[in-house]
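hey so i finally got around to running the thing on that chain from the lab meeting. sorry it took forever, my laptop kept dying and i had to restart like 3 times. anyway pasting the input first so we r on the same page abt which one it is
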Amino acid sequence: MTHFSTVKRVIALAGAGAMLFSVAACGGGTASGGGKTTLKFAAFEGGYGADMYKEVVAAYEKLNPDVKIELTTSKKIEDEITPGMKAGNYPDIVELGQGSTSGLTETLLKDKAIEDVTDVLDMKVPGENKTVKDKLVDGVIGLYTNPYGGDKTYLMPMYYSPSGLVYNKTLLEQNGWKMPTTWDEMFKLGDEAKAKGISLFTYPTAGYFDAFFNALLADIGGDQFYQDVMTYKKDVWKTDEAKEALETTYKLVTEYLNPDTVGYANAQDFTKNQQSILDGKSLFMPNGTWIVNEMKDAPRTSGFEWGFAPVPTVKNGGTRYINTTIEAVWIPAKAKNKEAAKKFMAYLYSDEAASIFAKTGAIQPIKGNTDDLASDMKVFYDAYNEDNVKAVAGSFSATATVEGKNIKDDLYNAVDSVAYGKTTLQQWQDKLNETSNALNAAAKQ
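ok and heres what got predicted. didnt touch it at all, straight out
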């Protein structure tokens, strides 16, 4: 398995409130005054902020004076654009990965309402001589970008980042602790940390467990088992491998979790769980590169230094996996300016655009794009180079909607209930298997 043989959604960073920016006056048609084409660009404002989009829009308009871009950014961009889409008023291009609370991207994929953008891969990047495909990291086009299988691309990979266990390197060093590579070592460290009043684990919200579970499932069962889970193989959650993954997680969140975690694991308070890492109250949390920028102004213990590690393996000498998070950019099938949107999409992979994005830590899957990162960001990407470490990516495959069945809710969001003791290990496993089998049937329709 190469580092990017299959690739995955982005962890949506939920936040309260919405911030809207309008760049260039715009009407509702395909052109504005002077014959200029107007593009409507809607982008999710995650931990990287919104200013980078304004800069990229300004740079593209300078390169293409006959194009104006109406930009809308929001922490809840799906809530901003959904009402208009229901009324037939679609953005021309959208930056929003899978995994948002509303599941908008997944819903549109299920409805076959996202445009085929395979041809963008062969387009020359505006202002450059290389094609988009030439610039992309090898293997980044895969299960995530081609959600129906085959060679047609619908989601272009906008940013990529490793997500795994984030921690304070200094805290481990001060206590003489080594980063555990196996779960036996992890739980042993948890007992030692507990004796000093430090919790082994916390999580921002339960949604962050996608990164955790992707790595754990791949480690326990290997590549084929991981694919079986993602494609809803019948009774896959009854297997010994699935049970071991759930048992390991159950032990982690019922015996070693910071007791304040579940109370803060929501869109308004999740940064308090992240703060417990900076305050030295918890050792590890699942997270990704965006945490550096998101918490850049937060107080922290003396000498704090970001650390990042793959999820531990269940066996000595086993492969540790790093979930690779992808944020996507796509074009609605009912967009009015598809060709102009594709040209702008190609520009998003230019050196000029990549430089603007990288300033905030939004790293695109462009070859050589991580060479000059600052040390607090580079530590995340350097983890790919450790011994016995591989990337895992990909998302649950799209199926027809099954009322009342949501595999992500039953796997990730259920962790809150498990941690509280409201859901038993057996109930968790049974519910997952029931939902997975229902989606297996829907996939065959």
